[in-house]
UniProtKB/TrEMBL annotation:
This is Uncharacterized protein, isoform C. Pfam families: p450 (PF00067). It comes from the Eukaryota. Its main location: endoplasmic reticulum. The gene is Dvir\GJ24057. Heme binds at residue 245.
Length: 299
């Protein structure tokens, strides 16, 4: 499955969210979107189906030779196929849930890594601090293994990732429907059944919350003495509460591993200015112009 396929499908789904009439197959055909959407969706479904089939075949092989490793039990696909075997999930349920994981993780994590590298290119002093931290853990360049324990040692990289997602949240707006009347702190009551939009992008840039430097990139926003007294919902790149992103820990770990390998081996720079970034709100946030980065190999 190619990256372009996922992008095509997600963009058409985005169009359907903001233009509900595109939920109709007939209307999509009239606008010339149905063929691309159907093709992309079929390719993604086929890819996921192969993963499930391989997993079930491997389970059958393991059953003949012994029990699976306990370390594998919490992997999403294992849990989904286990529910399938027990008759709780149908095959379609497994495909649908896997589809959600693919769409939820693919573009958001990739964008977060890319935008973090762009920001570090624009603010080299923070890049050097991250490099020094990574260099202490991995003195030799090239390909190296990063363990979970290693990711826990990358404290400054945590600050950088959080600040990157504050300034450029992967998903700029999320929607929710109230399940009961909700009394806001302002005294306004939002009735049950109302669709509301939460503007994460502007929440993360609020000067009332983050101070005068709210609209610039500064990892020190997340130093304990700056962040600990913030409202628990002041920073919600993965949303918050019982409907928060199910894969947020996995996303953070995978982003840290990727950034550690890139920043250890390359120095990133750009002539593009931070103040010239122009953001386009979508299901995932976009840049009108993507800055070009220059890479210099580190030794």
């Amino acid at each position: 499955m190619g990256a372009l396929t996922t992008i095509v499908c997600s963009r058409i789904i985005n169009d359907m969210c903001f233009s509900p009439w595109l939920s109709s197959k007939t209307v999509r055909q009239l606008f010339g979107k149905e063929e691309r959407y159907s093709s992309a969706k079929s390719e993604i479904r086929g890819f996921i189906r192969k993963l499930i089939e391989r997993k079930l075949a491997r389970d059958a092989e393991i059953a003949e030779n012994g029990n699976p490793s306990p370390l594998e039990k919490n992997i999403f696909l294992n849990l989904a196929t286990d529910l399938l075997k027990r008759g709780i999930f149908s095959w379609k349920n497994v495909e649908d849930e896997s589809n959600v994981i693919v769409f939820g993780a693919f573009e958001t994590t990739a964008n977060t890594v890319a935008y973090t590298l762009i920001l570090l290119s624009m603010f080299p002093k923070y890049q050097e601090k991250a490099f020094e931290e990574i260099l202490a853990l991995f003195p030799d360049p090239g390909d190296f293994e990063v363990t979970y324990a290693d990711t826990q040692e990358m404290v400054y990289l945590d600050l950088i990732l959080n600040e990157s997602m504050r300034v450029i949240p992967p998903v700029p707006v999320v929607s929710r429907q109230t399940s009961q009347d909700v009394l806001l702190s302002s005294g306004v009551v939002v009735p049950k059944g109302v669709q509301i939009a939460i503007d994460i992008f502007h929440l993360h840039r609020s000067k009332k919350i983050w101070g005068e430097g709210a609209e610039t990139f500064d990892p020190e926003h997340f130093l304990p003495h700056h962040y600990q007294n913030k409202h628990p919902y002041a920073f919600i790149p993965f949303t918050k509460g019982i409907r928060n992103c199910i894969g947020w820990r996995y996303a953070m770990i995978s982003a840290k591993i990727t950034l550690a390998k890139l920043l250890r081996n390359y120095k990133f720079s750009t002539s593009f200015k931070f103040e010239d970034l122009y953001f386009v709100e979508d299901i995932t946030i976009k840049l009108k112009t993507v800055p070009l980065l220059t890479l210099q190999r580190r030794t």
